[in-house]
Amino acid sequence: MALLAAALAAAPGAQAAADSGSASDRATPGGASAVLDGLKTYGQAVLHSGDGTVRRIPAGLCEMRVDGGGMLQTYGVGAAGYAQPEARYTESGWGGTLLAANQDAGRIRWVLEHSYPQLNDLAGLAKAAGAGSLTAESAAAGTQVAIWRLADGAQVEAADPEAEKLADYLQREAARLPEPPASLGLEPAEVSGPVSGPTGARLGPITVRTGAQSVTVAPDAAAVAMGVRVVDAEGRPLTTAGNGTRLYFEVPPGTPDGHASVVVQGSTRVPVGRAFANGIPEQTQIVAGSSAVATTAAGTAVWPAPGTAPMGGVAAVPLSSPDDPADPERLATSGSSAATPVIAALAVGLVVLGGMVVLLLRKRPLEDEPGAEEDL
Fold first, then answer.
1. How far apart are CA 203 and CA 226, in angstroms?
2. Tell me: the pLDDT tens digits for 157-204?
3. How far is CA 199 from CA 72, 250, 253, 254, in A?
């Protein structure tokens, strides 16, 4: 009986696990995608590890090739994470990188905007830092060292004394600046609502955020097939947009439940201080310079609103009771479910009870056995 009670007690948790799930994220991150070329302008630094070891590592500027055209100059964020050439990166907010919750992230942006390569006057930069002279390599090394210290508290110094003076100056003077905006983004990335009545629905708005003068706007193939249009607030079709433009999805009446997307593309510079991630936090790169690069963002409309149907389209199957045994054919066609462990436990319990009954019956004397009447 204890076995049966335990099996029944586990049933609610098993059912909850079966019913849990997460909605599909259809939004595509906005901005640029790139491939790391590797270090291009660099010097040397000395890194002190927590275990007492000391090693020399390269420190300086990397270059990245942007998908669709353009180049980026970047510094690494993590001193212990040497980024591999040909690794693929995507533009990201600070919250999705090693800089998440780092109070000094804004100071790193200041360093980037007040050092090489944003400041090409190396003589002026050296004078401000109290250094004798700086080359492009020593300036890049000193800037990288300052970023490492602010990003993850690395115990590191530049091998070149003049580069070390620059690193100290940048770390000392850095003020906190706000996170830069995305090169191209949509706010929000997803809108939703019902489609009813004779006029259908206009879902939105989604606002374009970009540094480009103009971006192209195009619905995806699924939207075109369903007759969904991307329009402005007055219902006029949109093929181009600028910063602050509001987009709407115009869904015809009678359109089946579904979703559609809009793709926005343009060419602009990625703001200094914008992060690029590859899934390994220690290998995050941060933008120090940018040419005009290709950028892309996607927004999605969903109808009806998420949550109006069971999660993932799967309805919960109630557990059967002893007075209402489960239908074997129904279980066979529905596949494995949270009720399966409970049914198995019930079966084991019944087998145990049956064995106990048999043992009791075998111990009871039979009325027909010799001597049974004499004992009465």
1. 15
2. 999 999 999 999 999 999 999 999 999 999 999 999 998 878 889 999
3. 47, 10, 6, 9
Burial of 318 (0-12, 13-18, 19+ CB in 10 A): exposed
Q: What is the DSSP string of 19-75?
A: H-------PEEEE-EEEEEEEEEEEEEEEE-TTS-EEEEEEEEEEEEETTS-EEEEE
Cα separation, 266 vs 294, in Å, equals 6
Instruction: List pLDDT tens digits, range 258-310.
Output: 999 999 999 999 999 999 999 999 999 999 999 999 999 999 999 985 555 43
Which of 74, 111, 112, 113 lies closest to 90, judged by CA? 74
Length of the chain as a residue count: 376
- What's the CA angle centered on 96, arms 289 and 166, to 5 degrees? 40
Give the Cα-Cα-Cα angle 150, 152, 157 (nearest 5 degrees). Answer: 65
Other C-beta atoms within 10 Å of 19: how many?
15
Q: How far apart are CA 243 and CA 208, in angstroms?
A: 5
The vertex-352 CA angle with 351 and 356, nearest 5°, equals 115
Q: Provide the 3-class DSSP secondary structure of residue 170.
A: helix
